[in-house]
Amino acid sequence: MAEFEKILRETDTKKRLSVPIRFLRSLPPFKGSHAVTFEATDEKGKAWTFQCSIRKTGQYPKPVLTRGWVAFVKSKKLHVGDTVRFIKRKNRATAAISYKVRAEKAIKIFGAPFGHARI
């Protein structure tokens, strides 16, 4: 199982989600392309299609989720400070790969950060 978690910043909530380079190993192969599409299911079982893109040139690929990401953010009403987690799972019996996406809202009590709640 591979995963990454990120506390969202402004760009993450409005345009695209920057992901760590190590997460690229968890995605389907790019096969010479600069983008790959994958599907992840949320806690309610809804499937979301995301596209991960990398730079076409340069040493640092700077991976980002583009297509599908803003719709996910809007649907979950995510804001700066909320957390998102992507999880890759491999079925031992069938070797099938699946992805999960989890969103957690930042909880504040009297304006102070208190934790996160899954949505």
TrEMBL record:
GO molecular function list: DNA binding; DNA-binding transcription factor activity
Residue intervals of the TF-B3 domain: 2-105
Keywords, alphabetical: DNA-binding, Nucleus, Transcription, Transcription regulation
CC annotations in GO: nucleus
Subcellular location: Nucleus
Superkingdom of source: Eukaryota
Name of the molecule in the record: TF-B3 domain-containing protein
